[in-house]
Protein: Claudin
Organism: Stercorarius parasiticus
Amino acid sequence: MVGGALQIAGLLLGGIGMIGTFAVTGMPQWRVSAFIENNIIVFETIWEGLWMHCIRQANIRMQCKIYDSVLALSPDLQASRGLMCAGSVLSFLAFVVAIIGMKCTRCVRSSWQTKGYIILTAGLLFILSGAVELIPVCWVANTIISDFYNPAVNVAQKRELGEALYLGWAAAFCLIAAGAIFCCFYGCCEKTRSYGYSAPTHYSTDSQHLHRKTESSYSKSQYV
């Protein structure tokens, strides 16, 4: 009962993290225009994402344009595009592997030990996907903060942290938490299995010793 609940909780967290990763990869709100000092044109907001940049005017009209070339992106956004795609693929693969390894799944004819290894693989993939997602999100956030406090950067070019970064941190946390749950579930199953195997062995050794002692006593009495 407890093991099934842990698996369901891990699968739900992994699914939320996977959907969040997909959303973060496609969202344009990675870098948002900052309204500071002389930049007080608040009716126009600029969003910069991995695939496009958008201009939103007075909460009424929004225009988006896909980047003409990858070279038009800053180095942090170029690397983030590849890392987020890798994180999306890993999170989807981990989710599929976790479904295959669930107790209630009977799509593969395998033993519980094999399913335990599948669950462990899913947990490691979830943790890996969360770590891969954290790298670009933290990198872009660090670049934004560094440029914001850099006096050499023009005020009009300074940006603030967008909603996609906060969602990325939350999605990465869900993925890592799901991976930790699956790995802990595998560890608990291994401890239970090893304890269950050790007890019968001890009993069987004692039984064999008792049997030999009885046979020996019977042989001596028969000899006399």
Remarks:
- The two ends are 59 Å apart (CA to CA).
- The CA atoms of residues 100 and 108 lie 8 Å apart.
